[in-house]
Amino acid sequence: MVAASPSSALRIVLLGPPGSGKGTQAEILAQGLGVPAISTGQMLRDAVAAASPLGLKVNEIMAAGELVDDETMADVVRERMAADDAQKGFVLDGYPRTLAQAATLQEILGGAGQRLEAVVQIDVPEGELVNRVLGRQRADDTEDVIRQRLAVYHEQTEPLVAFYRERGLLRDVDGHQSIEDVSKSIRDALVGAG
Ligand code: B4P
User: Fold this and answer.
1) Active-site position among 11, 80, 132, 149
2) Residues 63, 9 contacting (CB under 8 angstroms)
3) How many CB atoms lie within 10 A of CB 31?
4) 40 lines ligand 1 (CB under 6 A)
5) DSSP 8-state assignment for residue 6
6) Do residues 10 and 63 touch, judged by C-beta distance below 8 A?
């Protein structure tokens, strides 16, 4: 098991299509490491629930299965990463989702003298993704919306797989297993990270 300490903070990104279990695994992994799980999807849903200016801006975009624009997300992530608890490491779930966001993340971390230790790609067959998401029954979980979100994933987020593989950061994990077995596979994949 990997462990986080102030001198060896672990900064990990979970990458995967909607419904692959990023949020589920981010919570488990972050708890094990003693670092925060930072979910941009959850932050946006909280903003929508609170009807904050950010929530009002992103509500319709999320409901349509589209991505919130990169500039808005950069502000959200920059602010969250500056918080004290994120200095000891983090598990980032749902960010980056575009190559521009990956560049922003590098810039934010580089500016603080930090870097990512690993990017875990959670792989799940498409039919299983649709079943899981429809079972979850969130506001953005209708069949049309999930199909749109998958299309957006293939077009805008999948290029990140090659981006991080080229940088030697990518670890592939089979997400089509029980939640416990996926967690174990992620821990195994992170041995030696950082
Ligand atoms: P997210 O909140 O990131 O939503 P997600 O990709 O659907 O969820 P995740 O992969 O975390 O799946 P989960 O663990 O819930 O994004 C929502 C929206 O926010 C986006 O569409 C976009 O509009 C916006 N957004 C967020 N970040 C953005 C960014 N950076 N840029 C622009 N826009 C952004 O798991 C799914 C279900 O499967 C659950 O019910 C779970 O219980 C189940 N499950 C999990 N693991 C399982 C397993 N191993 N076996 C069986 N079931 C499992």
Assistant:
1) 149
2) no
3) 12
4) yes
5) G
6) no
Global pTM value = 0.93
End-to-end C-alpha distance for the chain, whole angstroms? 12
Class of domain 10-190: alpha beta
pLDDT tens string, the chain, 194 residues long: the values are: 454 444 468 999 999 999 999 999 999 999 999 999 999 999 999 999 999 999 999 999 999 999 999 999 999 999 999 999 999 999 999 999 999 999 999 999 999 999 999 999 999 999 999 999 999 988 889 999 999 999 999 999 999 999 999 999 999 999 999 999 999 999 999 997 87
Ligand 1 atom at minimum distance from 58 CA? 23
Closest-lying ligand 1 atom to the alpha carbon of residue 176: 49
Q: How far is the CA of 129 from the centre of ligand 1 (A)?
A: 10
- The ranges assigned to domains in the chain are 10-190
**Bridge partner residues of 15 (DSSP):** 121
